[in-house]
Each structure stands twice: as C-alpha cells, then as structure tokens.
Amino acid sequence: MTAYYDQPLRKLLGTLSPTINWLGLKGTVEVNNVPTEHVDAIKQLERIGVVHKRNNRLYELQKVRLKKLMDSMGMDVLIAPPLVEAVVATLEAPVAPVAPAIPADPGLN
C-alpha cells in the first residue's frame, strides 16, 4: 500500500492547488481569459472532473467533486508542493534516541 502522501492524485491536487485556489476565488472564468500559467492545470483538472467547461465558453470549479476527492484521500485542505515536501521530511525525519533511564540505586530506598 502506498503511503498517503505518495498517492498520485494527492500529489496532483497539491501541484494544482494554486490554480484550484485561483479558480475558487474567480468563480467562473471565460476560456479566453484564463492566464497562460493556469491553462495546462485547468485541462488536467477538467480530465479528473474537478473543473467543468460549460458551453465551451466558461470554466467552473466543481466544489462538490473536489470535496469528495479530498475526503476520499483524507485531506482537509490543499497543500502546495513545497509544503508537502516539508511535511513529509518532518514525518520521515529520524527521531533522536532517548537517553536510557538511569537505574535508581537500591540502597536509597
């Protein structure tokens, strides 16, 4: 079984989170008015059903579908990729060994 932070869809949503947040703020956006940095991301989101193209003119975020995808993966919020890597590194960081407890001197009891 793949660790949850290694799931491909989780990584994809994390990578596309700036576009998802931008589209969430804009609501619906005309196809011609999409900035070039968001075009490829919107096409990928359209393939997985998170963005809907209405009448070949408007892109619209499907919030219910996004919420269902996130719930199925145990995600509460979208995390951008640099933060994901930092969280993963923190989770996988070796824990410093704890010094062994010093046994109590039996003569002190």
Explain what this protein looks like in three dimensions.
This protein is mostly helical. It has a single domain (4-80), classed as Arc Repressor Mutant, subunit A (Orthogonal Bundle), CATH 1.10.10. Helices cover 48% and strands 10% of the residues. The chain has a three-stranded antiparallel sheet. A hairpin with a 3-residue loop joins strand 2 and strand 3. The protein starts with 7 loop residues before the first helix and ends in a 17-residue tail after the last helix.
Task: Please tag this protein with its features.
elongated, 109 residues, single chain, 3 strands, 5 helices
CATH level 1 class label: Mainly Alpha
Overall domain count: 1
Please report the number of helical segments: 5
Count the E strands.
Answer: 3
Helix content: 40-55%
CATH topology: Arc Repressor Mutant, subunit A
Q: Alpha-carbon distance between the termini?
A: 52 Å
Lateral strand order in the biggest sheet: 1-3-2
Name given to the CATH architecture: Orthogonal Bundle
Topology as a string of helices (H) and strands (E): HHEHEEHH
How much of the sequence lies in strands comes to: 5-15%
Low-confidence runs (pLDDT<50, min 5 residues)? none
Average pLDDT number? 76
What can be said about the biggest beta sheet? 3 strands, antiparallel
| Silhouette | elongated
Overall structural class, as computed from helix and strand content, comes to: mainly alpha
What gyration radius follows from the Cα positions, in whole Å?
22 Å
